[in-house]
Queue: 4 jobs
Job 1
Amino acid sequence: PGTDEHRPPVRIERDGVVATVVIDRPKALNALSPDVLGAIADAFDALRSEADAVRGVIVVGEGGRAFVAGADIRSLSTLTPDEGAEAARLGHRVAAAIEAFPAPVIACVDGFALGGGLELALACDLIYATESSWFGQPEVRLGLIPGFGGTVRLPRAVGLSLAKELIFTGRRIDAATAESAGLVARRFGDRDALLAGARATIDEVAANAWTAVALAKRVLVDAAGTPTAAATEFEVAGFADAFRTDDMREGVAAFIEKREPEFSGR
Ligand code: CAA
């Protein structure tokens, strides 16, 4: 359900020095199933082999409603704690591939960037967004916690206080709020302006010394606080623990059955 037949869920478009990674699963609001995550990682691997020509990557969601509405809740619904840890690690592998990619990666958000979708955007170097975008970590509404890096990268992006408010409430913030919090680097009126703005930034980057840009990215990624690989292990353990709870089964079942959850606190 929710898959768009006859089309791969992720494709690469090339235009000069710019590569665009399109997540194309609009019927499920581009939710990140294991297949989609694997295809995003493969796309960055493929682009790495031609990294000399690629000076910047745009990541965008198809369909006009969502960047990515999260990890695929259906794929999570039956996992054991060990499988939950594996699911989190797959998301972290995608984020690591983006952070290790030598050229800047711009998440172009037009619509929902929720849960794993916000975490994917946070793994990119910068986030550009249209006015009609929404950002949040709604995992606790499902009995889950962020699993693709949100507990690590969201506090770095917006500060600990707002990060905790967003993660504890599951609340969504709009593009203007996200921009003033420093989560979004730049806001655009519509999708065309968003993509043109991202291309213009990459063209500006491409005019600079390539070696210096690549070095700056490496140092920025490495210097961003606690070593990411160590910090994300705390998250993997907590995400796996969520799969031991009744609340997670109830929260995920309620989403799939389109009803309000009844949490027991266990
Ligand atoms: N996983 C699987 N399917 C999803 C999905 C997700 N994360 N988000 C949306 N979909 C599907 C819906 O099930 C629906 O499919 P059907 O048409 O087959 O029923 C379709 O996409 C359209 O969604 P809605 O009908 O719900 O659209 P809406 O406009 O009423 O609501 C929304 C939009 C508010 C984004 C809502 O879809 C929503 O709340 N989605 C879930 C958001 C979420 O909880 N994300 C976190 C997931 S857990 C996670 O990401 C863990 C982690 O950190 C790794």
Job 2
Amino acid sequence: HASKEALTEEGWLLKKKLGSRVYIPGHHYQRDEVIQFADDRGDSLRLAQLAAAKKEAEYIIFCGVHFMAETADILTDKRQKVILPDHRAGCAMADMATIHQLERGWKRLQNQFGDTIIPMTYINSTAEIKAFCGRHGGATLTSSNAGKMMQWAFSQKERILFLPDQHLGRNTGVGLGIPLEHMVVWDPIRETFEGDAGTRTQVILWKGYCTVHELFTEKNVADCRKEDSDVRILVHPECNYEVVRQADFSGSTKYIIDVIDHAPAGSHWAIGTEMNLVNRLKHNHPDLKIRSLNPMMCSCLTMNRIDLPHLVWSLAQLEAGDAPDTIISVPDAVAKDAVFALKRMLEQS
Ligand code: 13P
Ligand code: SF4
């Protein structure tokens, strides 16, 4: 068992040796010990844009979760290989929408609403869900462009099926002025609506959620305000509607970073997003008073599965010329449809 220092040193040495053969993108929720090696950091949108633009690297070691690595594989050149250092780094939210549930649900929705629905998926979804959306005229979206993409969707069809995050769908819908009564939740397990679905329905929200962001509660908001009347509350739109409504600011990971980077010195913040990012912001801004909106500190188990040993092991495999066994490869039949959904988004972004 090498020490953390020794592993870090080995990681830098290997990265240097591999040079431009390897490109390492990293999501902002990654551990410090990992993100230090990233050539670029970003939120989901930026990482998708970078993957689409990066043509020279032979290998892309993706420091993020499974759906992000799949997205990179779909958008990169055929000869480029995408590596996810630990294949157990999934996403609880993406797992809440399977292609079988979607195909069954879609039939039911078609029976009720006919050809008036466009399927739109948060990028936090499997390649197969993206492919379904691509085949049916829909697109992907991220928390950075959700409003714009929903508006685009309404230019195509009367109704949106929004997968898989009900909270991002609801919060974005409300932001566009859609009344809550015009949105209805679809439960893919029980195959029923939760609430009334009828002619006024504009958004059908898939009943998925992020297991990290759902941990921020209205009670957390009330407690923070009680403890500190100067606090400003800043949350990700994967938090539930009431939390977002009661917060002072809400937006994507990139938005959260921008707000904090421009915050007045001495201001107080309670942030509702993944712990690694909150801790990094705290560390980078000692002049601000920053804390997690939930004092428990909410961490994404799967994001954290990409750790220093897994990253160094992936680099070592490549350097030794071994066939990496952590390649993510989306089947061509899926990728060819999923790319439509992703390109429709990238064209608007
Ligand atoms: P963004 O990077 O789009 O803010 O998404 C947050 C997230 O939960 C990624 O898994
Ligand atoms: Fe998925 Fe939430 Fe983790 Fe992001 S933070 S990877 S949405 S479980």
Job 3
Amino acid sequence: MQRAKSTLPRVYVTRRVPPEGLRILNESGQVQYELWDSDDPVPRQELLKRVRGVDGLVCVLTEKIDAELLDAAGPNLRVLSTMSVGYDHLSLDELKKRGIRVGYTPDVLTDAVAELTVALLLTTSRRLIEATHEAKTGGWGTWRTMWLCGYELANSTVGILGLGRIGVAIAERLKPFKVKKFIYTDVAPRPELASMIQAEYVSMEELAKQSDFLAICCAFTPETKEICNKKLFSQMKNTSVFINTSRGGVVNQEDLYEALSSGQIAAAGLDVTTPEPLPTDHPLFTLKNCVILPHVASASYSTRNAMSALAANNLLAGLSGEPMPKELKL
Ligand code: DGY
């Protein structure tokens, strides 16, 4: 906890954030902040107490910023800065109603997330987790002609659900693997982004039917809640690989389990689930054709530092009434 002059705006930081963000706050001399100095989330009741009277709040994606919390903070709160590109943990209506400005961290994590998505896709499609397990546990017999065969990217069609910066960055990385065609769907065509990767706009149904690899990159909103469900999986090829690095809530996990266990689709790679952490006895963990990562897409040292720096700069700009480097339009 750092204390500065009592006249400075008061800020609560809900988690131990990477050093770059803290350095910026410390050196700014513009705020006094209190930090929940732990890698684990601040308990809700504690959070409700700590935010009382603050001018600014820095949070991460595990904190639910809703009416209860905003009421607990009170009328001084004028800036919320989340260290995430996703903002489904924020009640935007409540923030807007109270005139609270919101900063978030797009762009700085695009490369890391795209990189991890490609890694997860290859791990899933070429069955790398199964392969290392077999090698370690005595399953590696003689070289066999069809053992541990998977699906390759060369000559494939890659579908993107929700084309934004991250979808484009994924496609750019996959192109050198000789992908034949990129297709995408979204609420409307996005010609500028699509032209960067020569992607064709198709309907949701065509996306499901044509994709050999389907990457989910959309934001989690009421409209996209469980958009990946029985209907979508039933339209996919049984050789298709499903990859989700957006939010767990866009997938109906029971339907996904059914699609994977019945062979309706070939495999799934998930960096995000509902809930997080996914309980270790969850049925999805029993499937060999499902690779589950613990929400680590943006977890590189440089990216997490850049996210914390942007979150700090958004906060400082917001508190001084200046344009934020990345402000969410409410
Ligand atoms: C985000 O920022 O929303 C990612 O899910 C975690 O980096």
Job 4
Amino acid sequence: MTEVLSPDAKGIARAAALLSQGALVAIPTETVYGLAGDARSDQAVAAIYTAKGRPSFNPLIVHLAKTDQAALYAHVSDQARALMAAFWPGPLTLVLPLHDGAGLSPLVTAGLPSVALRQPAHRLAQALLTAFDGPLAAPSANPSGRVSSTTATHVLDGLSGRIAAVLDGGACTVGVESTIIGLADGPPRLLRPGGIGVEEIEGVLGQKLATAGEGITAPGQLASHYAPGAGVVLNATERPKGAIWVGFGPKCAGADLNLSVVGSLTDAACNLFDMLRKADALAGPGGQIAFAPVPRDGLGLAINDRLQRAAAPR
Ligand code: TXA
Ligand code: MG
């Protein structure tokens, strides 16, 4: 049985106690729900890979209570420091050179010489990290390759019975995962578009980001990801026959669902995974979901990235 914990002092204390015993707890963050375990425990981290059915070559993000804890686990460059000062706590993950003897389970980094770090902004995530008093490894709380979770109900749909508990913090406000920037080697690189726009990050660094080249992308960025049961097609400016049409903006008046009727990318990111799940339920087995075009600026880059992976051949 997976316990559902309330978003109060009692729920946080129970979540921290379970994590200290090496159990797994799904936790709300501002981006998506994370499936958290003690990042120092081989047993807890191995259990995360098992619960998700995640390939063990795909490393996890380590979540921190405080910005200055990054130096415990990684070598922090001036560029990393500038990005932390601008965007932490928040939806930004930095991949940095791993500190020798950092005390993290080697399973967290999948044996890489780098580590992904993030300080989440969510009130409950912060309270739990402080109560637990240690680093939490947390991938998105969904079975590997499937749609990410932005509510406790989504988490239970995919992982009920496989994890000890979920801390119910309601719906996530950002709705897409963190932006991942690689600073471990070479020029600063965009490894995954996410909750902070590339333009904002380039503004702080004062330079353009390199894009992920062959073989240096985040290992988890497999072509097919975020896959619902139904087929997905993109750039549908009208409803294809027999498909569930998910619109964006006021032009899509006849759509079954609309990511944002007023055309807000912030609202669309927040609604994305829930609408993907709803459209999947409406389309049914063997059905099809057709998404209207979404602009590619700001959060639109992350939304288009998730839609392309949802539509990729499986
Ligand atoms: O918003 C988020 O980032 C959420 C919340 C829970 O924090 N987490 C999340 O985790 O999206 P996950 O595991 O679904 O995605 C993490 C990505 C994967 O693509 C993984 O390959 C990449 O980060 N990653 C982790 N460590 C890395 C490293 N050392 N080098 C390159 N990529 C890394
Ligand atoms: Mg994920």
